[in-house]
Specification:
Blueprint (H helix, E strand, L loop, with lengths): L1 H42 L8 H6 L4 H15 L7 H8 L5 H31 L9 H43 L4 H44 L5 H23 L6 H13 L10
Helix pairs in contact: 1-5, 1-7, 5-6, 5-7, 6-7, 8-9
C-alpha cells in the first residue's frame, strides 16, 4: 500500500511539474511582452508627464488650507450640539485622488509581477539538475536566470513598500501643517511630496516595463539551455576530444618513421592544432 501511495504521489508531482512548466513558458514567452506593452501604453496615457499639472492641481494649496481653517472655526462653535462624526467629512483634508488612483493601479501591477516571478522561480528550481562534475555551462545559465528573476521580484517588493510609505509621509506632513498653519513651508513640503511621488511612480513603471521585456528577451535567447542544460554539450565535448586524440595518434605514428623526435613532433602538433581549434569551454 505504501508503494502504491508513493507512485500516486510521484505521478501527481510529475503532472504538477508539467503544468507548471507549460504555464511558466507561456507566461515568459507570450504574456510578458504583452504586459510590457501594456505598461508602456500606461506610461504614455494615464501615467504621462503631461498630467503633472493636473496632478499638482489636486494637491494642497493655500485656498484649500484657508477653507479648512474656516470650516474648523465654524464647526468648533457647534461642537457641543453636533457630534464629531457629522463634521468629519467637512473638516478633513482630502488626499490627492489622482495620485491615489495611480498608486492603486501600480500596486496591482507590482503584485502581479511578484506572483509571476514566483512562478518562474519555482519552475527554474525544478529544472536545475543534480550537481556533478563538468559540463555545467547550461546549469550556470539556469542559475543566472534564477538570480535575475529573484532580483526582479525583490525590486517589485521594495517598490510596493515605497508606494505604501507615501501615505505615511504625506499624512505626517499634513498633521504638522494643521498644527502650524502659519508656516508655509509645510504647505510647499506637501506639494513637493506629491510631485516627487509622481516621478517615483514613473521610475517604477519604467523599471517594471524594462523587467518584462528584459526577462522575455533573456528567456528567448537561452530557452534551450534553460530547458535542457546538459543535452548537447556533453556530446560536443566528447566528440571534440575524440577527434583530437585520433589526430594525435595519426600524427605521432607518421613521425615515427622520420628523424624528428616524438616529443618535439607532439609539441609542434599541439601548436598547430591550437592555432585553429577552440577550447572545449567555448563550445556552447
Amino acid at each position: 500500500m505504501d508503494e502504491d501511495h508513493e507512485e500516486v504521489a510521484c505521478g501527481n508531482l510529475d503532472v504538477w511539474k508539467q503544468e507548471l512548466s507549460s504555464k511558466a513558458e507561456a507566461l515568459v514567452l507570450e504574456a510578458f511582452p504583452r504586459k510590457g506593452r501594456y505598461v508602456d501604453e500606461l506610461m504614455n496615457s494615464q501615467f504621462s508627464m503631461d498630467r503633472l499639472a493636473e496632478i499638482m492641481a489636486g494637491s494642497i494649496n493655500s485656498d484649500t488650507l484657508r477653507q479648512h481653517s474656516n470650516l474648523t472655526s465654524s464647526c468648533s462653535t457647534s461642537a457641543e450640539k453636533v457630534g464629531d462624526s457629522d463634521n468629519r467629512d467637512e473638516n478633513s483634508i482630502l488626499c490627492n485622488k489622482m495620485l491615489v488612483e495611480m498608486n492603486n493601479s501600480l500596486m496591482r501591477l507590482l503584485h502581479e509581477m511578484c506572483e509571476d516571478s514566483g512562478m518562474l522561480m519555482r519552475w527554474l528550481g525544478f529544472l536545475i539538475p543534480r550537481m556533478q562534475g563538468g559540463n555545467n555551462f547550461g546549469v550556470s545559465v539556469q542559475l543566472k536566470t534564477l538570480k535575475e528573476v529573484t532580483s526582479v521580484r525583490k525590486s517589485a517588493s521594495v517598490a510596493l513598500q515605497l508606494l505604501s510609505r507615501y501615505y505615511n509621509i504625506r499624512g505626517e506632513s499634513i498633521k504638522k501643517l494643521l498644527k502650524h498653519p502659519q508656516i508655509e513651508d509645510y504647505l510647499y513640503l506637501i506639494q513637493s511630496i506629491d510631485r516627487r511621488h509622481f516621478f517615483t511612480i514613473r521610475v517604477i513603471m519604467t523599471t517594471l516595463r524594462n523587467n518584462y521585456f528584459g526577462l522575455h528577451d533573456h528567456f528567448l535567447k537561452n530557452i534551450d539551455l534553460i530547458r535542457n542544460p546538459r543535452s548537447d554539450n556533453t556530446h560536443r565535448i566528447t566528440h571534440y576530444w575524440t577527434i583530437l586524440f585520433l589526430q594525435l595518434v595519426v600524427y605521432a605514428y607518421g613521425v615515427m618513421s622520420t628523424e624528428t623526435s616524438v616529443p618535439g613532433a607532439v609539441y609542434d602538433w599541439f601548436k598547430f592544432i591550437g592555432s585553429w581549434t577552440k577550447f572545449p569551454s567555448q563550445l556552447t
